[in-house]
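Quick entry, no commentary yet.
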Amino acid sequence: MSTDLATLDLPTSAKTLIFDPPSKTLRLATRAPPTPDPSRDDHLIHVHTTALCARELIWPIQFPDNFYADNPQRQITPGYDLAGTVLTSPSGSPFKPGDEIYCRTLPSRPGNAREYTIARTDELALKPVGLGWEEAATVPLSALTAWQVLFEHAGFKGLDDPEAKGKRILVTAAAGGVGLWLVQLARIAGFHVVAQIGSERNKRFVRKLGAAEAINYKEVSLKEWAEKGGKADVVVDMLGGKTLEECWYCVKEGGALISIVEPPEGRRLEELGRNVRNLFFIMKPDGKQLAEITRLLEKGECQAVVDSVWPLEEYENAFNRLDGGHANGKVVIRVAE
């Protein structure tokens, strides 16, 4: 490793947030800092901030195989977004001790609501210059999900793909963590962005980010919008359930319907969407894609959005804010200064 672990003055125990799936409870505990394995490209990171994601506490229950595959101690620590400082790195890593990084880490390892964590080379990117720790933690999961929706699963080849110019994209929950990044990246790529929101405040918010249209679901349902001529080439759902069902009315024949919550096919009415490509996917960490997003942030072409910041000791308040369903942007936990 670039820095010998034995030379670091690490504490014997560190604050760690623990989730117990059987009881569905959280508690703040102490655990020994993790030991990096350089043969697996492990970096030991001093965590400054992490950000929370809606529904993340049900993931270990829904997808246990994904959470214990690389987690022999079977420790569930939430917060899979990370902004922190490299303490040790494996030989040959482009990330050196002292580097300020951010990333999304795989859920097969404990998350980052703890003072020290592990991140791997292919997950990491340098933190954008000028971006604070709180802002940086909001970016990886949400921005990477939006990037992969557009440039992997919707079939477009990148921000400069001429096929994207003028295409209409409908984004549900557009003021949320992933939604706000879809609005921004789609706007940069040249899409006509239609954003579904639930208040005048959120309408102003998404229009500022680049939405050309906004649909207030409290006033007009997606089905009603579609019946008035509203159709989109790409529809992206962040809510599932009834909203996803109504998304089927909104996608053009030959278009794409993508959900990050559940498979769209299970919500399709028989008479709809016979020629619509539909899929559900789970995003993957990707440091190279995150570096592309870093460049956009540093050029001021898009922005990170923080809803609120909570110290680690106030984790209950942070999750209450998240579960309330009205956050603009991401809920952040500050682990260390």
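second:
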Amino acid sequence: MARTRPSNPNEKRRRAKSKLHRVQPSPSKRREHTPTELLAEATTFLHTGDPESALPLALRAFVLSESNSSAKSDSQAVTHTLPSLSAINLLAEINIELGDPDAARHYFLQAVALDPDLKIPEAEGGGAEKFLWLAQLCEEGGEESVRWFERGAEVLRRDIASAEEMGLTGEVVEDKKRKLVGALCGIVEVYMTDLSYVPFSLSDAYSSLFHLTHIPHLSHSPQCQKARAKALFLRPRLDPLAETHCLTRINKALALLPKSPAPHQTHASVLISQRLLPAARTALRTCLSLWRALPPSHPDVPDFPARISLVRLLLEVGMEKDALSVVDGVVSGDEECVEGWYLGGWGLWILGDKKRRNEARVDDDEEIIDDENDDGEKLEHKKGEEEGESGRNDGEGHDWTGRWQDSLQWLRTCLQLYDQLDYEDERLRHHALELVQAIETEFAANGVEVEGNEEEGGGGGEWESGDEAGEGKGDGDQVMG
């Protein structure tokens, strides 16, 4: 289900210029390409980030395949459905890249109709891919998504068993196992949302209690501190039936690929819903350890959407430093990732708030951060232990105002991109504005000058580690702030 790389505008301009100087063959020398040749050329365009050029070639291949099929007898027509099936699958993938999910869903459903018994090999247009896509594209969601995931998982299990019987090993088998793990994790996500409880936004939880912690003379009261701690643990619990389905699939995924980060991340999400926060942190540490040192092109490195989800999970369990490290890599790879800038600004706000509370409760030169989990368990981190879950140094000289200055930059960048890109997530925008207003109000009350205030919309420079502030920019693997 991996998506192809987005098209590069500079590369597209280069190709357009090249076409202007290309010598066209004379009409007498032209010949009609076969469907197979057209599909190969369209696939090349798609994989190099040019779905616009791929679309007419794939359509032509489909038309030729249909014409060839109609000209044959019924017994011969079955053979000629195979190029049609490959063309339909390719047309669906092209429309995904072009941002037309309705057209993609239409083509994938056609592909399913041509392979009702799941007997056509993947090389000839069969396989699990169409089912895995339909699980994500279906309009109803819920049980229908689960059914499509299960059909895809059935094909993958059969292919894996067949390969193992033949003694095959290597990346082809591992890739099928990754897809099967993805299908199992996809089912878990459906049970945690559509089939368990109403989808819940963590930002809503924090935002709903945010104003309580900024009432003068009350922000450090036990009542508000408890509300602040509870804000991160308002995710509804799984109902028993959904919990059983989730655990069954997660255990299968972990048994299949125990060294893949994906099932550990999904397992952490389930554990959070079960209120098993220490176990969730352990699962998230394992997830991070399995891909952080890998090269970016490695198949086990999560894609951008998975990393955004990971950042949210890390923030939910109080692993802010790791969350910021991950989100730095996201915005380094996609500078227009609105949600990445928002989560980075939010994470820095949380770290600055913790430091602000520490300074108000210094006792015998020992800083304490007290939080409570949903079951009332005290979570205490002494000075030196609150170094972040990754074990990286926070920079002792970086006080709460510095954290919030950085938070302002990133939140302003988020809001600027939100308007420029016509982004649609009003709750995200509302929470980002709320955070900005709270920081500016606190700075005004404490006589702190807002850095970069002359820039409209904010700049959003890169994160800096506390030890390197003012000396250099952080990279994707560095803790920010």
